Amino acid sequence: MNRRPIPGASVGARIRGGRGVVRATLLGSLLLAVTACGGGGSDSGAASGGKDAEGAKNASPQAVVTIAPKDGADRVATTGALKVAAAKGKLTEVSVEDAKGHEVEGKITGGGTGWKPSVHLATHTRYTVRAVAKDAGGRSTTQKSSFTTLTPKATFTGNFTPEDGTKVGVGMPFSVNFTRGITHPEDVEKAITIKTEPAVEVRGHWFGNDRLDFRPEEYWKPGTKVSVTLNLDGVEGRPGVYGKQAKKVDFTIGRSQISTVDVKTQKMTVRRDGKVIKTIPVTTGKSGYDTWNGQMVITERLSVTRMNGETVGYGGEYDIKDVPHAMRLTTSGTFIHGNYWGGGTFGNYASSHGCVGLRDVKGGYDGSVSAAWFFNRSMVGDVVVVKHSHDKTVAPDNGLNGWNMSWKEWTA
């Protein structure tokens, strides 16, 4: 029996079978329905706008970060070489670290267009730089680089006083003597920072080109804690000569003791925290060997020492091998010390070669005599003031005696 073709059905559809025809027809209807539902022209524009927003979001960042020196550079200068810049965007983050994770301080400048370090770099050190910048669309660009600083052929250090962890008198400055003459003093001074508690302004003063002292305007307040950072590693102190020292020094100011020697009366008045605790008869420099006037700081304490006139330009006038209870006041050789050979000079007349002598016994064994009493109650940094002498005021660099300069002179 012949079957009639289904109206509208193709031969191919008939060969695949009726179920296939139904499925194909249903699928086609669904697709048409979906197309019809999403068809309007305004909706097509919205779809296009979504693609544009997504494209803008995924576009490449426009900001460009440049780092100098270039990645892998060697023998880089410790100052002036490190720079970070941004174009078509602004820097948002810059970090520079050495191999130990110590970060180099710096600041972003020019509203985000640049960055520069606030301090110099250390010598023979590898640094890693990471910089991030954002463009106007908020997209970030990150750049990394690393380099190694130079290894100097010539170096310098600073020998300083007082030592770390010590307690000193109110007159003690922080003094640094450099092993090489400095021709870039501003760079060296900038590398030494001093913080105090309680806070007080501390300023430096150069004596020649190899010594730098720091002090406040007035004597330190008793109990002040002083913290010094010597960040000299990498500082070019003179052409081709770099510092190699990085050290922190902490010291504390003890009680106030200021002793005043009056040459007219040959007596010394000792004041502790402003109160007189003892008056001591002394003997000062005789005519032609007058004791310096001025404020002098005790810089060294010796239970016994040898004093030879030849070491201070007095030939063979004296050579005493066992001077007891000696404390240095000047580099040139002025001491306040025990004297067991002075007889009745103490409190009566001047008989020394410029030192301040106090009654003592040979061997310095008697703790009750004036020299022992004063020695046992003194510390490095205490102040001895001499007045009414016929000599001039001691030079501020003869010992640690910068207190003989006004604050205006000190800070000039």
Automatic annotation (TrEMBL):
Q: Which Pfam families match?
A: Big_10 (PF17964), YkuD (PF03734)
Pathway(s) per entry: Cell wall biogenesis; peptidoglycan biosynthesis
Q: Which organism is it from?
A: Streptomyces griseoaurantiacus
L,D-TPase catalytic domain residues are 257-387
Carries keyword Lipid metabolism?
A: no
- InterPro entries per the record? Big_10, LD-transpeptidase, LD_TPept_cat_dom, Transpep_catalytic_dom
Q: What is this protein called?
A: Ig-like domain-containing protein
Which keywords describe this protein according to UniProt? Acyltransferase, Cell shape, Cell wall biogenesis/degradation, Peptidoglycan synthesis, Transferase
Keyword Flavoprotein among record annotations: no
* Active-site residues annotated for this sequence: 337, 355
PANTHER family of this UniProt entry?
L,D-TRANSPEPTIDASE, L,D-TRANSPEPTIDASE YCIB-RELATED
